[in-house]
Amino acid sequence: MAKNILIIDDEELIIKALKKLLETESFNVFIAKNGQDALIMIEEELFDLIIADIRMPGMNGVETIQSIYTNLKNRSLKNIPVIFITGYADLTIEQKAKNSLKPVAYIYKPFNISELVSKVKGVLS
């Protein structure tokens, strides 16, 4: 059975590239362009992995994942593994994300495609 991946990112180019790449690897890919959309999707679908951008308008990626984890806890569901991607290096936000949310990876844009696919496959195997 194909695994479900939720991509949370507001950059259209990143969304299209990741969606095409991951679908080529036989994953089911769902897109949320902001944190609010992601929270709605979490209510409607079960995901095996989340790939989230850190910097987004409204709720940033860290706030979005914190809200998702609270939602899952309230529904007695386990946390979903997260890969954060970011185009900027803010060590304060990175440390907060790593300490409180325990992402399986933290990848900087521009990222190596094969590295990302390898991380995704490793998490979902």
Give structural notes.
- This protein has 125 residues and is of the alpha/beta class.
- The protein has a single domain, classed as Rossmann fold (3-Layer(aba) Sandwich), CATH 3.40.50.2300.
- The chain contains five helices and five strands.
- It has helices at residues 12-24, 35-44, 61-74, 91-101, 113-124; strands at 4-8, 28-32, 49-53, 82-86, 105-108.
- Strand 1 (4-8), helix 1 (12-24) and strand 2 form a beta-alpha-beta unit.
- Helix 2 (35-44) packs parallel to helix 3.
- The radius of gyration is 13 Å and the shape is globular.
- The mean pLDDT is 91.
Describe how the helices and strands are arranged.
Layout: E1 4-8, H1 12-24, E2 28-32, H2 35-44, E3 49-53, H3 61-74, E4 82-86, H4 91-101, E5 105-108, H5 113-124
Parallel strand pairs: 1-2, 1-3, 3-4, 4-5
Biggest sheet overview: 5 strands, parallel
Taken as a percent bin, the fraction of beta residues is 15-25%
In the predicted model, the low-confidence regions spanning at least 5 consecutive residues are: none
Instruction: Tell me, briefly, the overall form.
Output: globular
Number of helices: 5
Quickly name the level 1 CATH class.
Answer: Alpha Beta
Can you give the mean pLDDT?
91
The fold-level CATH name is: Rossmann fold
How do the strands of the widest beta sheet line up side by side? 2-1-3-4-5
Radius of gyration: 13 Å
Work out the oligomeric state of the chains in this entry. Answer: single chain
Helix content: 40-55%
Domain unit count:
1
**Which structural class do you get from the secondary structure elements?**
alpha/beta
- The separation of the N and C termini measures 12 Å
CATH superfamily membership: Response regulator
